[in-house]
Amino acid sequence: MTKKQTLPATASTTSIAPVDITSARFKANPFPFYAQLRAEAPVFPVILPTKQRAWLVTRYDDVLSVLKDKRFAKDRHNAMTPEQLKKAPWVPPMFKPLERNMLDLDSPDHTRLRALVHKAFTPRLIEQMREQVQTLANELLDKVEPKGSMDVIADFALPLPLTVIGRILGVPVQDNHKFHRWTKTLISGGTNRNLFVLIPSIMGFMAYLKKLIKERRTRPQDDLITALVQAKEGSDQLSEDEILAMVILLLIAGHETTVNLIGSGTLALLEHSDQLAKLQSEPTLIKPAIEELLRFVCPVETTTERYASEDITIEGITIPRGELVLAAIGSANRDANYFDDPDTLDITRENNKHLAFGQGVHYCLGAPLSRLEGQIAISTLIQRIPDLRLSIAPEQVRWRGSFVLRGLEALPVSF
């Protein structure tokens, strides 16, 4: 497809009303706003609830560039001036270990951590989960089917990936409910103005995990925490803080995004009955259907934080050194330069180069697991409960206010 002409940098942004991109109201339908930005102001400053300015990058080419350009640092210490670092949000000392996760690091630290984790988080491990995921999906539906109604999020989309990542890591089943409470608290930290309210939950989470990691050192099991403890590259291995940060990252990334894919993906199918019927009659379409749902509903709406390590100009707009940049995956995935009829859900879409899992060196490590869970969960749900329907009007569906992610609070259905 031919590229559209780029508007001059002088294009007015005054006609674009300011929005809170973390609000539930915005999450319900951010796509018209993104379409306006792509057309009028492809690099646009927004103010977050924390009062921090962030630059939204919205066109596909530019989002891809941000994802691959090493000048956009993940670690703010590699981007900010000493003066900017002094003004940056304060991180309590007890949270410092969490900064040692590979999502927030640049090379060479990121390269080292990813190589070690990759040794533990293998395709073989993912494929071994297929039967367990299928069994779990059936067990969850067995519980709700006699009732004739359920909340897709609480009864299905949440417990499935949470239980799976818990099993992969080696977390005792009876502790799963704690993990959702803890991870929800951690994610809310992105928009919470008062960090101190999070401290008790996060401290409890970290203490529990440290104990679990210590147990795996003395009594190894066939699980991912043991694999992380034992992972080596020559004489190099993960430190205690790095294992702790990695486990927390995998717990959050390993279930929250998939909850959103299953929940929002189900809603999208219910709102597009022709696509739902097509998928029910042709179950082999589940793989392209999941790719299309990833593009269409955007479980991860923007990339996690990146910081300009120097003054960087995109589309004629200069982003000053040290400032926060958010590449809007939800916008790139609706860019008409790359997708025909981008606002249309088409489960047979071909050449679907969506950016739902990112791109470049930080491409999502858990993408194969998320795809596997999404395919099994949605396929099982719509085949076992063919007359699934919303219990409320579509406009009453509640979205979660959040930073980066896009997902539902609840999805009540009946059958």
Automatic annotation (TrEMBL):
Q: Among its keywords, does the record have DNA-binding?
A: no
So which domain of life are we looking at?
A: Bacteria
Q: Which PROSITE patterns match?
A: CYTOCHROME_P450
One Pfam family from the UniProt entry? p450
What keywords are assigned to this protein? Answer: Heme, Iron, Metal-binding, Monooxygenase, Oxidoreductase
The question of whether Metal-binding is a record keyword is answered with yes
Database matches in PANTHER family: CYTOCHROME P450 YJIB-RELATED, P450, PUTATIVE (EUROFUNG)-RELATED
- Family the entry assigns: Belongs to the cytochrome P450 family.
Q: What is this protein called?
A: Polyketide biosynthesis cytochrome P450 PksS
Q: Which organism is it from?
A: Ktedonobacter robiniae
- In the UniProt record, the gene name given for this protein reads pksS_4
